[in-house]
Amino acid sequence: MDKKPELELFDNPNPERDYWITIRCPEFTSVCPRTGQPDFGEITIEYCPDKLCIELKSLKLYMQSYRNKGIFYEALTNDILDDLSGSCKPRQMKVTSRFTPRGGITTDVVAEYKKDK
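Predicted structure:
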């Protein structure tokens, strides 16, 4: 993946309050870097926004940019967390990737970010 689509953001309508946003991407696909076969899974993003929120259409385009990328689940989950938390700078964020069975094995990867006080 040469260039990732830019994430668009908008002002948090209630920055004085802690609240959580949960976004599910149930049709996520990437490619196994070893076999070249597609990987199918669900990415769940949970975050407590600070000043900015993530605009969903730009997030959809960002997620689709992984469609042809060969990447391991662990790197993928951490890349998404780094990109999203770096962009919107939330108070907290958790990214969970759940991949469908391959060879009878399922994999879930969870990565978390907490803003320094």
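Summary: The beta strands are 9-11, 21-31, 38-48, 52-54, 92-102, 105-114.
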